[in-house]
Amino acid sequence: MIYKLFDLYWDIETRYEKTRFFLKDYIYPSEMRADINIKITDEEIKNEILKYPGHDEVYHELICIFRHIAKEIISYDGMFMHSSVVSLDDQGYMFLGKSGVGKTTHAMLWESYFKGRAEIINGDKPIIRFIDNDIFAYGNPWGGKEGKHKNKRVKVKCGCFIVQSNINRIRKLTSEECFKLLLNQVVIPNETELKIKFYDLLNKLLTSIPFYILECDISDQAVLTAYNFMRSENQ
């Protein structure tokens, strides 16, 4: 079956009906020659079961599919970025940080505060892709435990790392600070050629958009602190 993801056409061979249901919003309902073909082997499934026991077969198949996507997309100037992306007035704000820090929670605050203007494109595993001179964040079905995703893309305006705090304050990161933090949000390929390409993309991201670090609580004030500062910096 052909799926349209990240403005590319993927022929993804699946074993289970639940996997196809998971991907249903991204089916491309017409004949199209695929850009990329993905077929998961029995060995890959077995390896995932050994690493992550206690889950059903669909879980393991979906993990394998996403691993392939994260690897294949590098050749198309893209990368997986562990983050939550909000589209506000057609501009993308990418929130990053350690697992459990509250990236999606903060993104949901934006969705609530800017009701009707903001929506979460992807809550956990957006793909960032360079097209011409622009950087786009794409939604996909891997939207985290909240299931937040849209079959859309948005031009990325900036990135912001989240740190839990009792106060709300934000500052711009240096390139050196940001590079170290970004390494915790990505999956670096093992293959030498892909690794070189990946680091080129990462450096391009660093030099193309600003990054910030936001110390915040769970409140509307946290949203305003972040939004007002990032908007004034990028007018």
What do you see in this structure?
35% of the residues lie in helices and 28% in strands. The chain starts with a strand and ends with a helix. The protein has two domains: 2-76, no CATH class; 79-233, Phosphoenolpyruvate Carboxykinase, domain 3 (Alpha-Beta Complex). Helix 2 crosses helix 3 (57-72). The chain is built from seven helices and twelve strands. It is an alpha+beta fold and 235 residues long.
How many strands? 12
What does the largest sheet look like? 9 strands, mixed
Query: N- to C-terminal separation?
Result: 43 Å
| Global geometry | globular
CATH architecture classification name of the largest domain: Alpha-Beta Complex
By CATH, the topology of the largest domain is Phosphoenolpyruvate Carboxykinase, domain 3
Estimate the strand proportion. Answer: 25-35%
Low-confidence stretches: none
Radius of gyration: 18 Å
How many domains, as an integer? 2
Give the H and E element order: EEHEHHEEEHEEEEEHHEH
Structural class call reads alpha+beta
Helix content: 25-40%
Mean pLDDT: 94
The CATH class label of the largest domain is: Alpha Beta
Helices, by number, come to: 7
